[in-house]
């Protein structure tokens, strides 16, 4: 699957890369530019030590990291510069899949620079310990940079446990069981009591890789995917579900609601609503080409309509999160993938031309946290999570794609 692996020359990353790489013959490449962020005088300090010794400077690091200045340096800006340098070397291996093993901050910088986002996006695209992100790079015209698409962000690791069972002659055996960790579990980034969960559903607007074409009854698959999403979210005490008025999405919202009410019997005050601005099924029907180059198949009027709708839907969803009567709010939006791609663009303050930077599969879950409240910048914790879909889960990478994994 991978042509080579890149890592920083530090023991923890080295060991992780070796475990992943296994018995492959290709050598592991080390690059000092992949080292973690350098905080100079802050380096090695505990949080309480940083607060007591540096006061205002520590506060600046917490609240405005991209402009944080210490010892004559801007650490986040330097990190972004190193990440751009790394891409020049990594992408020299044209047409091959590459695994990059590095630490939290530098992986954030790698994702940000690949997408053309500046250092102000530090801490906005979360990278958790052992989380996996995948970027797809596709060739463009000769001499131009490749097309880049964030296939998925911060996929949580598998939970490995031993399940005790009894075999023949009552001999006790303990097979290893691997289960995906929920993308909603606390695993990185700042804690937040306001959260938005985007559930992408619908064959008419699906941009995943052939899943519907391979299924003879697309509607039945929608129902199956909806049930799996509902089971994934069964432990989430959500406050409201906002869905597109399209049939597939309203049915999926109903399934999620039924499972939620069964999980929180007698205690759930779940509110169900619909928003026309979340509907993109008619828009998607005009696009016949699927996959990561989907954006190129949409004419400017369609993109503008999609973008304008998201401009209404995004503040509406934020208003649902803003109710002061709810200390903890979890709003679930059920809509076609195209609608949620546009919402990601709104969350990150992008333009409609940048919507091609994202990929979502039908049945996927995307999580956005608001640690400073809905009026402030949302933090994208995970995108395009599909491990809960079982046999319908889209693999993190395919050998046929020119992708880079982080």
TrEMBL record:
SUPFAM superfamilies: Phosphoglycerate mutase-like. Gene3D superfamilies: Phosphoglycerate mutase-like. Pfam families: His_Phos_1. One of its GO terms (molecular function) is phosphatase activity. It comes from the Eukaryota. Belongs to the phosphoglycerate mutase family. PANTHER family: 2-CARBOXY-D-ARABINITOL-1-PHOSPHATASE-RELATED, BROAD-SPECIFICITY PHOSPHATASE YOR283W-RELATED. This is 2-carboxy-D-arabinitol-1-phosphatase. It comes from Kalanchoe fedtschenkoi (Lavender scallops).
């Amino acid at each position: 699957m991978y042509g080579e692996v890149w890592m920083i020359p530090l023991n923890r990353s080295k060991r992780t890369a070796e475990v992943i790489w296994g018995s492959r013959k290709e050598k592991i490449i080390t690059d000092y530019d992949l080292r973690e962020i350098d905080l100079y005088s802050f380096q090695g300090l505990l949080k309480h030590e940083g607060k007591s010794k540096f006061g205002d400077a520590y506060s600046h690091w917490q609240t405005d990291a991209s402009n944080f200045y210490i010892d004559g340096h801007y650490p986040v800006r330097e990190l972004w510069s190193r990440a751009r340098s790394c891409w020049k070397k990594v992408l020299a291996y044209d047409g091959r899949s590459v695994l990059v093993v590095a630490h939290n901050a530098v992986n954030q910088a790698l994702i940000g620079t690949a997408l053309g986002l500046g250092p102000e996006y530090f801490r906005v695209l979360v990278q958790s310990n052992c989380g996996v992100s995948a970027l797809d790079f596709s060739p463009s015209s000769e001499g131009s940079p490749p097309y880049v698409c964030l296939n998925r962000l911060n996929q949580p690791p598998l939970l490995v446990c031993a399940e005790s069972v009894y075999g023949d002659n009552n001999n006790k055996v303990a097979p290893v069981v691997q289960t995906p960790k929920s993308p909603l579990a606390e695993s990185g980034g700042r804690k937040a009591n306001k959260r938005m969960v985007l559930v992408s559903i619908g064959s008419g607007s699906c941009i995943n890789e052939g899943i519907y074409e391979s299924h003879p009854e697309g509607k039945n698959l929608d129902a199956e995917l909806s049930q799996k999403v509902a089971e994934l979210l069964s432990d989430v005490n959500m406050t409201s579900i906002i869905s597109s008025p399209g049939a597939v999405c309203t049915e999926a919202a109903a399934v999620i609601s039924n499972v939620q009410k069964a999980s929180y019997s007698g205690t759930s005050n779940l509110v169900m609503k619909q928003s026309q601005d979340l509907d993109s099924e008619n828009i998607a029907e005009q696009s016949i080409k699927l996959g990561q180059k989907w954006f190129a198949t949409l004419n400017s009027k369609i993109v503008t309509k999609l973008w304008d709708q998201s401009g209404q839907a995004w503040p509406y969803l934020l208003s649902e999160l803003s109710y002061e009567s709810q200390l903890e709010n979890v709003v679930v939006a059920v809509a076609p993938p195209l609608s949620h791609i546009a919402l990601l663009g709104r969350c990150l303050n992008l333009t409609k031309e940048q919507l091609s930077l994202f990929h979502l599969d039908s049945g996927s879950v995307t999580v956005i946290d608001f640690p400073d409240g809905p009026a402030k910048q949302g933090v994208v914790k995970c995108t395009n999570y599909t491990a809960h879909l079982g046999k319908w889960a889209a693999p993190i990478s395919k050998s046929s794609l020119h992708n880079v994994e982080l």
